[in-house]
Specification:
The complex is a heterodimer of chains A (116) and B (112). Chain A contains no helices and 11 strands. By secondary structure, chain A is an all-beta fold. The radius of gyration of chain A is 13 Å and the shape is globular. Chain B is mostly beta strands. The radius of gyration of chain B is 13 Å and the shape is globular. The model of chain B has no long low-confidence stretch (mean pLDDT 92). Classes of the chains: A mainly beta (116), B mainly beta (112).
């Protein structure tokens, strides 16, 4: 099946710094990717929709200047957490929409961010 | 807005038993997706359903897309310890750019 790869799987950063998480669709082109945040034992919370070649669409309550999303190519979207704070520590997951091979959405492995 | 009601919230079963969980919606979906998430991992697609009434199997897993397109169930037969995890139903909302709407998840624990 289709594969979506996320990197890094775990990252620790200091408060005030920025960290970038990459999401790649490995064997299909994804015009649309999604970024989620997940809290322990909770369902995924959609943060934003990333569209190739255009600005991301953010969900209500998500700060676009804090969570910068860039979908520069059909296989890569990046989420940059700027000026990170401890409360940004979380599990971030991306997904990619495979329109061609089955109109299905595949998820990355997730990235654990710890801000110290 | 559209939402999916998933039940049960959790299950604690004996190894070898069959498991059934379901999702319902007040709105029609054109696609139903079932995912499993292991702790600390991203959700993995188990089964995708595209047609009303469709019954699809993937090994010991069987899922059906309800005829009204407002519900779906997932069955796991002869459960094993590695079936432990959280199972989510989800459906893309076409008019919202295929954003996924999720069920709250079913936590499955298996006693060996």
């Amino acid at each position: 099946g289709a594969v979506v790869s996320q990197h890094p799987s775990r990252v620790i950063c200091k408060s005030g710094t920025s960290v970038k998480i990459e999401c790649r669709s490995l064997d299909f082109q994804a015009t649309t990717m999604f970024w989620y945040r997940q809290f322990p034992k909770k369902s995924l919370m959609l943060m934003a929709t990333s569209n190739e070649g255009s600005k991301a669409t953010y969900e209500q309550g998500v700060e676009k200047d804090k969570f910068l999303i860039n979908h520069a190519s059909l296989t890569l979207s990046t989420l940059t957490v700027t000026s990170a704070h401890p409360e940004d520590s979380s599990f971030y997951i991306c997904s990619a929409y495979d329109r061609v091979s089955g109109n299905t959405i595949y998820f990355g492995e997730g990235s654990w961010l710890t801000v110290v | 807005g559209q939402q999916l009601n998933q039940s049960p919230q959790s299950m604690f079963i004996q190894e070898g038993e069959d498991v059934s969980m379901n999702c319902t919606s007040s709105s029609i979906f054109n696609t139903w997706l079932w995912y499993k998430q292991d702790p600390g991992e991203g959700p993995v697609l188990l089964i995708a359903l595209y047609k009303a009434g469709e019954l699809t199997s993937n090994g010991r897993l069987t899922a059906q897309f309800g005829i009204t397109r407002k519900d779906s169930f997932l069955n796991i037969s002869a459960s094993i310890p590695s079936d432990v995890g959280i199972y989510f139903c989800a459906g893309p909302v076409v008019e919202y750019g295929n954003k996924l709407v999720f069920g709250a998840g079913t936590i499955l624990r298996v006693k060996s």
